[in-house]
Amino acid sequence: MSATDGPLLEVAGLEKTLGAQHVLRGVDFAVNRGEVLAIIGASGSGKSTLLRCLNLLIRPDNGRILWQGREVGWVQNAGKRMPARERDLLGYRTQISMVFQSFNLFPHMTALQNVMEAPVMVMKRPRDEVRAEAEALLEKVRLSHRASAYPHQMSGGEQQRVAIARALAMRPEALLFDEVTSALDPELKGEVLSVMRDLASEGMTMVSVSHEMGFVRNVADRVVFMHKGRVCEAGDPKDVLANPSTPELQAFVRSVTD
Amino acid sequence: MDVLATQMPRFLQAIWLTIWLFALIATVSTLLGLSLALFVNGPRGRRALSVYTWIFRGLPELVVLLFCFLALPRIGIDLGAIGSAFLAFVLIGTAFHAEIFRAGLAAIDPRLIETSRSLGMGRMLMLRRVIIPQLARISVTPWATFLAGNVKMLSLASAVSVGEVMMVTRQSLAISNDPMTLILFAGAVYAAMASVVMVAELLLSGLMRRRYGPINGGMT
């Protein structure tokens, strides 16, 4: 898997209708390798749907997703463009793994088992090797002492850090974060954000839907502001947030800085 | 008391028959019900399954039993007493189990499914590693409740001359003037067997609650 010159991930003209709702109305952006991209916007602006389109948990109706320059999610079949089968997307998903707002750890597995699950069961890597790596990942998120705890015995912040370790265990090329601190009490957000800052400084490619303006301003390399299913404004977060040019972003910035 | 003592070897035989017949029916109907709940998809299949479970949950057990024992031989399917009882209770049990597991599947947090997909799990792997463990957690109580009730339902099989506990009881009643002892004994046997199922469920669900926490892990 050689790195290409272009962006790691690129989307163009992404459209999605869910029920009667036209959630994405043509979204374009690109993520370079090692870049931290923050997606902001009011609720209902299509951020979470967009994130789920990136690893094809949700199939876009239209548009293109290019991963390392190659299109994913669609195949050419007898000259016709067809949606790829679910089982042909599984390998792609292991390269771009996701951390969720509500942690979503498997309740019947310990922290360590949660982290080991995908590498052992999905990627069929040897259990001993995976165990050593999983223990190292738990150490990285500062949870070695919780390896044998079940999710219900852990705080939200601990669960979310296990979820980050689980996502990293697949050795992904990029990570997707879906409002990962929104469900946490204020005093627990910090421990998760600091793990994310560490990852960013190590050069991990990250796409993060976030309401944490501090994180967006200080950690993100670029910010994309979504409004009504479109990218309304994008650029360096320090510039864009300080001098929003559209009335929509001006209103949004006012509403989140209290 | 005399008749109970003299009939004890036949009672023990009948208890043994009841136990293995129950175990066999419970196993087969659980596996069939689970398979139907898991693998019957699509609107047409779902509708057919609903019709089946509606019929067999609605019919009296005795009607199904007599149908299998008396009516099926008329169209060339003679399964004998035990075979008919097995078929009847499997038909009924499968219908109940399919509904129990269908409801359990609907109660699994969809976010766990989404997470499994995001980890690259295919359908069968997800089934084995996430869905079945969650379903076991959610459905153990309704499943065991039905089975505990099903134990005593087996007494109906005496109506088609299966030599289980009620059958021996009725035969003993015919040669005895002590119905009190015999009926209380039969009752105790069924209650004991049902209690084994109920206690097992209590222990199992208690163990899972202590180890895994609330159902769906108390996700917010």
TrEMBL record, chain B:
Claim: Transmembrane helix is one of the keywords in the record: yes
SUPFAM superfamilies, per database record: MetI-like
Membrane topology: Multi-pass membrane protein
Superkingdom: Bacteria
Keywords linked to the UniProt accession: Amino-acid transport, Cell membrane, Membrane, Transmembrane, Transmembrane helix, Transport
Membrane spanning stretches: 14-39, 51-72, 84-105, 182-204
Compartment(s): Cell inner membrane; Cell membrane
Main subcellular location of this protein, as a coarse class: membrane
ABC transmembrane type-1 domain span: 15-208
Pfam families (alphabetical): BPD_transp_1
Family to which the UniProt record says this protein belongs: Belongs to the binding-protein-dependent transport system permease family. HisMQ subfamily.
Name the record gives this protein: ABC transporter permease subunit
Organism name: Salipiger mangrovisoli
